[in-house]
Amino acid sequence: MQVDLRKLGGFAAAAALCAMMPAGAWAQDRIDADMDMDMDRDMTGNGAEAEGEVLTTVLGTPPADLEGLAQGPVVEGFISAKDGDAMQIVAEDGSAQIVRVSQGTSIKATGGFLGLGRTELTMDSLLDGLPVKIETVQWNQGLVAETVRFSKDDYETALLVNRGTSRQFAQQGAAIEANTQATEALRSRFGDIDQYNIKSTTNVYFDTGKFNLSAQARGDLCAAASEAQGIDNALLLVVGYTDSTGSYEINQALSEKRAGRVVNYLQQQCGWQPWRMLTPTGMAEADPAADNSTPYGKAQNRRVAVNVLVSKSVDGM
Q1: Could you give all domains of the chain from N- to C-terminal order, each with its CATH number?
Q2: Nearest-5° angle of CA 101, CA 106, CA 112?
Q3: What is the pTM for the complete model shown?
Q4: Where residue 119 falls among pLDDT bands split at 50, 70, 90?
Q5: Nearest CA to 28 among 165, 215, 122, 220?
């Protein structure tokens, strides 16, 4: 995972990829596996020395009693990586900061999701990709979190991403099994399944570094699904994209998370059958729809394309 923090702009979280599709395309990966690589090389892009901090092993255990330690800065951003009691926070401007967590760190969610606002949480709740606000103290030439706060909505989103969609698989399993004969009958007619006619394409757009769906996007997705329902033998192909901000690895992960979020919404909220969904994919910054040198162009490129396809072998039947 090569992360060039000097080029990264906006909140681009390197969260774990998760299994979001019934086609079994993406198995859940933990960012821990990436950490087994040479972090000094990986976190600096093309081997250049990073201007910001990198997540490396720090000797010593932060004290449980943080009283009396000098106050540090307030750190806000996304958790992009974790290693032991250390976590890397990437801010909106692309800078990175390493913060340690001790037994004295107060970790809470605001908003009371599942009662989280009423209880102290552990570091296990600090999920990759979670936006956090951290008040710090200074210790051992570094920073230790005194308090970590995050919203219930952000936690819920990060929880779904990190745990994958096991509950979705269980729900979809019954539907897939019930539609097995129809699926096979449909697919057996395709012949060369890679040859499709594109009937329509709906694009939904995202903020920098985000994969949450806006109200406009949700409405557009269900409208696209409703239209596709009226097309015989139609399948959906969902493809995620990013702008040119950030490294390839981060953009690939982000584009896949955007595509996965759209797939989930189409199936869970718009009634699109899982067996009529082709394997989604993320294309990072490939195939830009507009010029990445302007803010407007970048906004057009932060998208997911929902393509309505019909195999050429059955189109018009």
Answers
A1: 31-159 (2.40.50.140), 184-311 (3.30.1330.60)
A2: 125
A3: 0.43
A4: low
A5: 165
